[in-house]
Amino acid sequence: MVPTQERSYRALTVDTVRSAVEQLQYFEDVEQLQVSEIGDGNLNYVFLLEEPATGKSLIVKQALPYAKVVGESWPLTLDRAKIEYQSLQKAAEVVPNLVPVVYHHDMEMAYTVMEDLSSHEILRSALINGNQYPNLGKDIGTYTAQTLFHTSDFYLHPFTKKALVKDFLNPELCKITEDLVFTDPFFDHDTNEISDEIRPFVTQFWQDEELKREAAKLKLQFLTEAEALLHGDLHSGSIFVTANSTKVIDPEFAFVGPIGFDLGSFLANLLLNYLSQEAHMKEKADLQVFRDFLSDTWKQTWETFATQFLELCKTKGHFTFSSIKGVAEEFVDKVWRDTLGFAGCEMVRRTIGLAQVADLNTIEDAPVQIDLKQKALTSGAALIKNRNEIKGINAFLSWIQEL
Ligand code: SR1
Ligand code: MG
């Protein structure tokens, strides 16, 4: 039997995408829409549909049956579009102001119609340009605390929790992370992208047995610890910002996993930007101010997450032991250690693995870029190996000063 997906799926084009919004009766005249494909991610098509007469606009995001970043030789499940849609819906139950509004999802065609966030900027480019967002830490701390608590065993009935695990198995996208984050960058694998100039350093890096042992432990945690429904890919390319708005997008890697993975992904991308600013910021005084902003952002993220998560355990928790002193607190301490370790893995993968970051790769001065990539690898490895020794946010902020 032909699976439903294959029976009716067609890739949309700028000419056919109007059909995706016709039935919504959102626009006055779909024939008058201006359409452009604006996707710059690794996996999907993203169409922007604009109606000049009314000033209205929408986004149609469609999954392709392969990974766009590599091409048709890397087939990839269309199920990820449904996972993303369901994950956005779940997040909207608890943080509606921190995710885009979703108008429609078509399972067979694997597309979702959602709010146009063109008024926002992607956080990665905004940070590279040196822009500051005072609410960012509080918003990401709130997003993580609320989405993760409400999908964890601290809140859900065990039957509901297990149904959630089943609904969000997402094996193919998890496998991408298992390979690209937790395996390939620690070995000489052909998915890695390593220039000749940095290869001798990386070859040494791969000799570190302790690093590999600790990375293996983190990989096993990712494979086995079903703590809460994660975003699954919370880097600075998955966050849209304005001066007073933050929107988390793109949760197609969502699955029930270890909470520290979301926080660690966010932290790693702040740290990569922190390092890269040595090249992007021309004035030393500006560099210090901007790095202080990044450190403050992480402090606010962590403190907001920890405070809200513990408060939720106290006020809304259904886990019998939550009322016992220290149970929730020790869990949050464990999340802290995991966050540092996962951040280290994400730093390593974004430096030498597949899908690297513009923060480092747009540095034009080659020796400076190599030097900063080496620093990123060393810092990532230090986080992986020392995650149990950096105890708490203040110790971490001192550690950053040494970078
Ligand atoms: C083949 S997908 C490569 C990367 O893009 C996504 O953003 C994820 O981070 C994934 O690992
Ligand atoms: Mg993405």
Automatic annotation (TrEMBL):
GO biological process entries: L-methionine salvage from methylthioadenosine
Pathway terms, separated by semicolons: Amino-acid biosynthesis; L-methionine biosynthesis via salvage pathway; S-methyl-5-thio-alpha-D-ribose 1-phosphate from S-methyl-5'-thioadenosine (hydrolase route): step 2/2
A UniProt-annotated Pfam family: APH
Catalytic activity entry: 5-(methylsulfanyl)-D-ribose + ATP = 5-(methylsulfanyl)-alpha-D-ribose 1-phosphate + ADP + H(+)
Keyword set includes DNA-binding: no
Recorded superkingdom: Bacteria
Annotated residues for binding of ATP: 44, 61, 115-117, 250-252
Annotated substrate binding sites: 233, 349
This enzyme's EC code(s): 2.7.1.100
SUPFAM superfamilies: Protein kinase-like (PK-like)
Every Aminoglycoside phosphotransferase domain range: 35-269
UniProt entry tagged with the keyword Oxidoreductase: no
Keywords linked to the UniProt accession: Amino-acid biosynthesis, ATP-binding, Kinase, Methionine biosynthesis, Nucleotide-binding, Transferase
Complex and partners: Homodimer.
Job description of the protein: Catalyzes the phosphorylation of methylthioribose into methylthioribose-1-phosphate.
HAMAP family: Salvage_MtnK
Family: Belongs to the methylthioribose kinase family.
The protein's name in its UniProt record: Methylthioribose kinase
Organism this protein belongs to: Shimazuella alba
